[in-house]
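Issue 218. Parser rejects a valid record. Input:
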Amino acid sequence: MTRPPLILFVCFIACAPFRLTAQSPGGVSANLTLWVKADSAYPITGGTLTKWTDLKGTNTFTKVGTAATINLNTINFHPVVHWTGAGTLKGSTSIIWSECTAVATWDGSPNSERGTVVSPLTSGTAPGDASRYYFRSGTEGSTGYVYAGMGADSIGFEYIDAPPEDQANIYTASGFNDVFNKNGLNAKVGSLYGGFTKRGTSMNGTPQIGDRSTSDSKMKGDIAEIVVYKTNNATNRNKVESYLALKYGITLGTTASSISYTSSAGTVFWTGNATYQRNVFGIGTDNASGLTQTKSNSMTTGSGNGAGQSGAGNLVLTSNALSNQQFLMIGNDAGSLAETTINGAMGPSNAIGSKRVGRNWKVQNTGAVGAVKLTFEKTGLSLTGNNTASNYWLVIDNDGDGNYTTGTQSDIMASSVAANIITFNSVTLNNNVVFTLITKPSTVSTLPVVWEDFKASARQNTVTLQWTTSNEDDVDRFVIERSVDAIAFTQTGSVMADNGSGLHPYESRVEEPLSGDYYYRIRAIDRDGAPHFSGIRSVRIEAPIVMQIRSNPVQGQRLELDINLPKKDKVMIWLADRQGNPILHQERSLQQGDNFVTIDLSAAPAGLYFVQMRAGSQASALSFLKY
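Output the parser choked on:
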């Protein structure tokens, strides 16, 4: 038996040129003198620190003493550099210091010496100058504070209350106007000897990380990021702090003093809100900041790897991809996570008698972020839905006023419950909506339809949608909706509802003539017109390639082929004789649709031949005779 030939090929991929974008914290590059972040520390796989890159490009750091370590997934899925009080990093070049912002945590009791984040390498030279630093956690008597200062105690320092162990915060101190912020707000509880301005608004010195200038306050804790400017950064301070807040899942401001978040482009992607400025977190991409945050939780309720704190009802947002300046933010109203029974005054009317948590969450969607995955952790909560996915529903108040008795609501059933994690796949959270969580539908007044299952599959150009519901009550019809981006959906068909108790299976087919990714959802319409959505399912269509021989047998010296492609592509064409021996191999760039291709056969004797074409993962083969 003659074996078919084994043909190996090498494909060369042509890449479009790209342009590097200059990056800086919050997109604020003017007057920047130092920028280090744990994401740029080596090795990126974690372990003993070997190098920490100054992204400003000014300083090269040398390890002194015991090396710090890189711990992954420590603050909102980002790494930190961890210090044990036994080592520092010393820089190479003097810089000007005036305003410093850092994200850090400390180990140990707040009423103890826990070390310093960053400082000039040397003390001041003016008479009376001594220790200089930004963000030292130490004590005054027996009380713990975090200090920042530009000289000895007799010269001037500001201080704030020391945070609890392992609490991540954003600290900003500026020599101008004696600023000392924690998470965007003035947190000063006092100053020593006139504060910064007693000594001036800036200082010079080579940076060291993990100690103060007198080398007696080595860091014990985690440093995630340090940013230094050489002058007052008041105009752009919010951009820097917003970038860090989004990245590290830290809430800026409070309900009493709410703060808006601003991107590098000047876009407000979270508007300060007196009701919902709690546990604010989100996902987003900001190219000018070098930030792509596609998974996030609040560090107040969650952790570095997304594991929730017991009883906190931690939410985790995940998106596969986001474009520059797309953001999806969530905050909550601090409502109780205990179950309450829905009555007529609470609404919605179709859920009266059901159980829900008392909390509401507010969404701000900038740049039309599409479908995301949302999880809710029920560890430490007593929820009667147990581990049954069909008991858990997101109820979305579309007008965003948090009143579920007015406007319209959408209902989305959980996809799964496992290990105390309730998962909602392919959820679209539009701008300004408010949502809550139903934890047990009522057996008396239930949601109009329970989604038991929904599947989408593709065979060539035909998409088959299959869904099963139960306990349909007053449902008029199911509308099939399709989308090419999981954001904008259009109707493509409908099926009348069966209604009644028990299981109700449905099936519908959609023809998609073009290749690509397609998204589908089912909208159940009540007889009063209210919609209730299923989850979103996606399929990929690869339209078949078609190759035909114009004249077979071939008479003359040319093989003429008609090739139809679903999209513009490079194709590989081979010819082989009847024994399978290759005699020709070509690559052609063809357009979408019909293409006419000729192949020179003048060197081929009469006989039986095979022609094969491959485009991507698809292939077509034909035989022909040459006379």
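Fixed in the parser; the record now loads. The mean pLDDT is 89.
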